[in-house]
Amino acid sequence: MMAESLAASAPAPLLVSWNLTRRCNLACAHCYLDAVQRKSEARDELTTGECLAVMCQLGQSAPGAMLVLTGGEPLLRHDLAQLVQAGREAGLMPVIGTNGTLLDARCAKSLRDAGAAGLSISLDSPGPHFHDRLRGLPGAWARARRGLAAAGKAGLAMVLQATVFEDNRGDLTALADIAGQAGAMAFNVFFLVCTGRGVTQSDLTSASYEETLRQIALLQERHPGMKIRARCAPYMRRIQGLHAGEGSGNYADWSSACLAGRRYLRITPQGCVTPCPYIPEVVGDLRHTPLAEIWNESPVLQRLRRELPKGKCGGCDYRYSCGGCRARALTQHGDLMAEDSKCRYVKPPDHLPEAPPAPVARPAVRWEPEAEARLERIPAFLRQRVRERLEEYAVREGVDPITVAFMAAHRPPHLSPARRQDPGG
């Protein structure tokens, strides 16, 4: 039975993660895809022609979306530059999610010339010991650092990423410093969802989750020019005390409930669609069904958009602004809409369940044509947020119309000219 409706329609995806291949040169202990070391693509993976056809569908169904091309290790796809170019020509924002070990100056330049907006590189510790052990290859840390340097020299926007465990959660401050020194525009901290080979790994306790999230919030204050974000931990909203629609500055008002199946989808190497990389439930096969049909009609995706979660998440005073991680609920309880038991928060007895976010009424603000044109060049996944922020500033300051100069004067630090695009999602 449907609970309170979250959305009556299916807005276009803003973020697409595409696992181009299961091939990988590493053997990461926590890999959700269970990627394999092999010399050639598996026969069941999408061919170049099939990938190009999917790219056209993405351009139509997810115009302007950020497209994260990952793996396995995407640099092992011989056609990666061709796919990046096709994504750019389809109106998408292609970025590369890589372990960085195969990235050199020639490869970085090739990706930049093909139209890659940037890339994200994983680094799980400030020194090699933990990273190399987790990634299954001695020297992986040093190679990732060289890849990070090559990306910077090529002029690609960079995001540093780390998966947090009990063994390395004390290293986040040092990792954030490395990201800042490398010129990364963001540092993403991923919280493990035990899928794929990740089922063999020890997850953080609920108390450790809370402590780590609070540490991330403090790190953001220390690095105002770089976005520092928790991934697969939507309860960051609660940590910050922000309800749906509230917040300002950096990423506080950009955080939201789990996007899986709402504004986010994942494509497997075989062309299957799932709500996110950590939810293995297949909702359609692009070899047989158009993406638009899958996105708009899948019962699983409809459920994610329209139902409130069960248990304590459904009655929480942050049920819309957080709502728990749907992938974690599935791994814990076998139900996408179950409560997220990893969250230790319990709603105080005197707090009411959170009401649906009300539409924000803003006075109409005019835009000069040049400013409007510049706004349209901002990727779709950022554009509406940027528009709302600038119009809010314009109303507050009595500015009408919004000009290019006004946009430049109110650009966030992490969207400076050298860091205008974010390959981290």
How is this structure best summarized?
The chain has 425 residues and is an alpha/beta fold.
Structure write-up:
- With 425 residues, the chain is α/β, with parallel strands linked by helices.
- 35% of the residues lie in helices and 12% in strands.
- It has 15 helices and ten strands.
- It starts with 14 loop residues before the first strand and ends in a 16-residue tail after the last helix.
How would the blueprint of this fold be written?
Layout (H helix, E strand, L loop, with lengths): L14 E5 L28 H14 L4 E5 L9 H10 L3 E6 L6 H10 L3 E5 L5 H8 L4 H15 L2 E8 L7 H11 L3 E6 L14 H17 L4 E5 L4 H4 L24 E4 L4 E3 L9 E2 L5 H7 L1 H8 L4 H4 L11 H8 L35 H8 L3 H18 L6 H6 L16
Parallel strand pairs: 1-2, 1-8, 2-3, 3-4, 4-5, 5-6, 6-7
Antiparallel strand pairs: 8-9, 9-10
Helix pairs in contact: 3-5
